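Lab notebook, design round three. We kept the backbone fixed and only want residue identities now. Task for the bench partner: fill in a sequence for the structure below.
Input structure tokens:
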């Protein structure tokens, strides 16, 4: 990356009107940043609470912002899509975007900002990133995303093995196109 530029991995999710919010979020990211790669969209059960299924994807962006500024920009994008921060952390949401990796940075705080993101332990964060950045290694000599996926408990689950392009949005094989849900 050029001086002042950063390669950033983002995880996106929605379980309220995902067919509206995820494509709109990608469009907003494309307007502001260069999107280097975009993963398929996967459908998953809510984690941590009983709620509607989530639709998750990932993007890699070329970013000119530092982590705190990017975090604030993403929160504003979530708010523009109706995300409310006065709701419980584990609840339904129209849009959730997290910084998962930021170059080779390790950062803890302020607040919930954590890089690398602990949610890499979940298949719904890890698998979309593996699809677009398998060779990205975690900071401080850590494993690559592909290495993490190779030993992940859900790796053999068929919903993670095949995908198809449907109406411009890639979805897990056997799922309806996101726009038709």
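Proposed sequence:
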């Amino acid at each position: 990356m050029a001086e002042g530029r950063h390669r950033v991995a983002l995880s996106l999710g929605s379980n309220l009107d995902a067919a509206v919010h995820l494509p709109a979020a990608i469009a907003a990211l494309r307007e502001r940043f260069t999107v280097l790669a975009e993963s398929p969209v996967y459908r998953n059960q809510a984690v941590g609470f009983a709620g509607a299924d989530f639709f998750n994807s990932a993007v890699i962006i070329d970013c000119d912002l530092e982590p705190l500024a990017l975090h604030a920009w993403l929160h504003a994008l979530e708010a523009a899509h109706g995300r409310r921060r006065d709701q419980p952390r584990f609840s339904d949401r129209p849009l959730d975007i997290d910084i998962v990796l930021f170059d080779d940075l390790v950062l803890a705080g302020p607040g919930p900002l954590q890089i690398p993101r602990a949610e890499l332990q979940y298949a719904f964060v890890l698998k979309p990133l593996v699809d677009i950045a398998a060779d990205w290694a975690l900071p401080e000599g850590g494993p690559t995303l592909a290495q993490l996926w190779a030993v992940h408990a859900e790796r053999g689950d068929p919903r993670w093995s095949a995908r198809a392009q449907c109406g411009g949005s890639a979805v897990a094989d056997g799922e309806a196109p996101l726009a038709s849900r």
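Keep this in mind before ordering anything: Residues 164-181 have pLDDT under 50 and may be disordered.
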